[in-house]
Amino acid sequence: MSFSIPAEPNPFDDPAGAEQAANLQAVLTVDRNATLTLGTDALIVLDEGLVHRREPRNCCGLLPQLSKTTRAIPFYNVLWATLEDFEVTVQFAQPTGKKGCTVGHVHYTLTDKSMYAHAKSWVEALLDRAYPSGVKRRKKMKVLVNPFGGQGYAQKMWSREVEPIFAAAKCDIDVEKTAYRGHAVEIAEKIDVDAYDAIACASGDGLPHEVFNGLAKQKDAKRALKKVAVVQIPCGSGNAMSLNLNGTDSPSLAAVAIVKGIRSSLDLVAITQGSQRYYSFLSQAVGIIAECDLGTDSLRWMGPLRFTWGFLVRLMGQTVYPAELSFALETDDKHAIQENHRRFLSEHTASTAKKLSQGSLSASEVSVAAGTSNDGEGLPALRYGSVKDALPSNFQTHDMPTLGNFYTGNMAYMSPDTPFFPVALPADGKMDLITIDGLVPRLTALRMLTNVEHGTLMNFPEVNYRKVSGYRITPRLTEKPSKGLKSKIGRWLGGAGKEKEGYIAIDGERVPYEPFQAEVMEGLGTVLSKRGGVYEFDGPPAA
Ligand SMILES: Nc1ncnc2c1ncn2[C@@H]1O[C@H](COP(=O)(O)OP(=O)(O)OP(=O)(O)O)[C@@H](O)[C@H]1O
Description:
The protein has helices spanning 15-26, 116-130, 149-152, 154-168, 183-190, 206-215, 221-227, 240-246, 251-259, 288-294, 305-316, 334-358, 363-369, 442-451, 485-492; strands spanning 27-29, 35-38, 42-47, 69-74, 78-84, 87-95, 101-109, 140-145, 172-177, 198-203, 229-234, 262-273, 276-280, 283-287, 323-331, 396-400, 403-409, 431-437, 463-475, 504-506, 509-511, 516-529. It is α+β, with helices and mostly antiparallel strands. The strands form 4 sheets. Strands 12, 13, 14, 15, 16, 17, 18, 19, 20, 21 and 22 form an 11-stranded antiparallel β-sheet that branches. A 4-stranded antiparallel β-sheet has the order 1-2-3-4. Strand 5 (78-84) and strand 6 (87-95) form a beta hairpin. The structure holds adenosine-5'-triphosphate. One of its GO terms (biological process) is sphingosine biosynthetic process.
């Protein structure tokens, strides 16, 4: 029989002393009598040698006021730290206004050589805080640059704003320019997924779409999509992926977010159309949104305004896009959808805080990290069959002769300030489906438009907001009126043309105006994101 003595507090323990020892571990004293301290969220640099000249306020303004200089560098901004030959260097992302950052550094010499071992463990402790558990250091990345992305500025943005940040963070980079449409599909189809952590697309949303589709063509597609994260360096005209996952469309800020990115799962949507199969990560649009995205070429001179203008013209014309729509409904209770989203976000915040305090990976990250195991062969079978099959029995069908807007999203933001799908979640196994009748009063339609940026569009009774797991849409061909002054002026203003063909956009790319069927493949894709598991839009304000 054994028994244990209950733990008694040791009267010789000195908690204050232990704390002091920990504090000493956090401090590195360097030359110029400066100290580098690991604070709660930031590296604190206290350097008495750095003296500013402040506004002369003393001695009749003749003497400069001397002051100690303290600087706080958030751990999130720390890109790398080294100790080489008694030289300590910390490289970090230094903000340059609201929309960007460059690489800055602090550099000191260790004067007390006996402190070398302490300095070595201090640098490692700094790196542990800069790259907490779950954030991989020195990521290996294949960078694809679309030389035509962002009206031809993508290459410049990559080399000026992003490459120096990846280099400072010691990422292992292999760069390739895409040479033609579809090139990124081929590259991703052939890539050795074991050689990279991520494929980073210096582009708009077109290249990530191609990369997901290329990975989906690999022999061991499921594993490929789990092993390699797809990320966007926002250098295009549409940068929704970066806005949603990293909360920015600034290439340099996104670069830091990628360096610090947490692997997370992303639902992909499998689409069948004719004999084609595509994978969509962002959205599918039929009607007004697709037409504004793809059918306003005559208005290119307007720049980004062309989309809003095209939208308004169609709204005022009460343009309709008749279709038959069938879907597998998960829920259409908007109140329950918003409550569920709020609950998910607060649980995510709580589990992140717990993870940070324990320094451990969350369950979802563990499952994504497991992509290194040999757990997949091909892609999952289609639960609902293809567009060529009979409709599944759990699909409900609606005839929509006056459909104005059909928009399905897998992410919240579709462009800056437009969270069309404010309650979308990255890996909930559901698509967010919006339908709006084309004949809603014009004033209501205008009010809807102004509500999009607040994430409150879904609150309009005229807006159907559903969570679905699959759908089929069969758009009907309609000939728009081609005669008459009104229709001519309409077309000149970028309105709907007389063509029978309409527009369907999948992730912003045009596909044939033919029926298609879609279904969610839960968590099939992998991305890197700032907060891991949630988007950078926190949902509509509570009512
Ligand atoms: N070298 C190339 N020449 C022509 N097209 C290319 C090239 N490289 C990539 N593309 C195509 O450009 C398309 C748009 O790319 P991306 O989304 O990166 O840019 P973007 O600036 O947002 O452009 P867009 O407004 O046209 O979507 C993609 O479909 C891609 O296949």
